[in-house]
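Limitations
The structure tokens in this dataset are predictions for the assembled complex, not deposited experimental models. Users should treat interface geometry with appropriate caution, especially where small molecules or nucleic acid strands are included. An illustrative entry is reproduced here so readers can see what is and is not provided.
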Amino acid sequence: MAKVLVVTSGKGGVGKTTSTAALGAALAQAGQKVAVVDFDVGLRNLDLVMGAERRVVFDLINVVQGVAKLSQALIRDKRLETLWLLPASQTRDKDALTEHGVAIIIKELRARFDWVICDSPAGIERGATLAMRFADAAVIVTNPEVSSVRDSDRIIGLLDSKTEKAEKGQRIEKHILITRHDAQRAARGEMLSIEDVLDILSTPLLGIIPESEEVLRASNVGSPVTLSNPASAPARAYLNAASRLMGEMVPMTIPSERKGLFDKLFGRRRAA
Amino acid sequence: MLGTCGIGQLVEALGGRGIRIIGLEGVEADQLGPSLPPLLKGGRPASGSETAALAASDQANGASAAGAPQRPEPSSLLIESPIRSGQSVIFPYGDVTVLGSVSSGAEVVAGGSIHIYGALRGRAMAGSMGNARARIFCSKNEAELISIDGYYRTSEEMDATLRTRPAQCWLDDRVLLIAALD
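Predicted assembly:
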């Protein structure tokens, strides 16, 4: 039975697209058939992060309007054969999306894939509400700082009211993914602690992704961070998060960069 | 004094001139029918308004007992999940109880008292229909704004020692008082 997952946040720039690509690649590496869908019409980024920007012919809007078939728009990843991308349009904007069109596409994707991951745009307008409309589960990406946490809280409220499942009285599975966590700044009290974030959001934690230069390097070469450098700290954290999505029990840790001496000095921090 | 018929005709006549009436004040609640605008309160009650407010709510509830009783029962609302940022709970008919936190950017507006078994990080406005005896209770006070019967205080004006503690707020002769409960 296919699972439709929406990666959303409310706040912009927290790591939705990075996380969509990383989780999608991690699930595909585990043998699952995964489609990642970019809902950010007009400001598409998922194709860049996936390294497919030179192969985009048809996009989500073309399929919604019936100009192209889904199989013509889907782009297969060159590195993982079970990972596919449905890019957004760059020339149009969110008004071109219709609920009916999106419903048909999601239904078709459900039939062909194990996981359909929807990369939501920032905000609470049409693009974001359509990305979450048909979701079974949600990953809410949050930075451990006050504005991101408040926006995530807003989005959680919308997930409980504007999705098809919520309207039918069913619960959407929600998970918090904390990104750009900086252990040193958290220790100095400059960032919100994990406990504070979870206390405010009252939603289970999926994973903690540490701040790392690897993320920028990966997007510059057009690769999800779990593929470009699987041994790096964020990649290991994403792989753990993907395992938890598949139902495995993985103890919650914040992977740190393997720097030898530094690692011995600061040790590993266990988060609840 | 206009009767229900007269009020209806006035509203209609004004509507025909492009003026839409959104609320009526200073009438008895039982003079208002379902097709007329609701009874609204300006926030500063006239004497005897409490009965009028309760009667109005009873009528809005659909007056379950045939032959509306003189003292309608107050009702209460129970919410068993946290109230998220941007959500608004408005319940003019009585008390509101929340089993969870009220997030920053959320608001609870009640005709009666407000009881929050969690952290209050947003706004709580009790006694919204002119009930000066309403109170606000919370397990953790981090409120942005509290108000009882129109008298309000923002978090900036609140004593810092009362934050992050269980607290109750009430109105004493038009002065808003907050005290810790621990």
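Some entries come with short summary sentences. For this one: Residues 43-69 of chain B have pLDDT under 50 and may be disordered.
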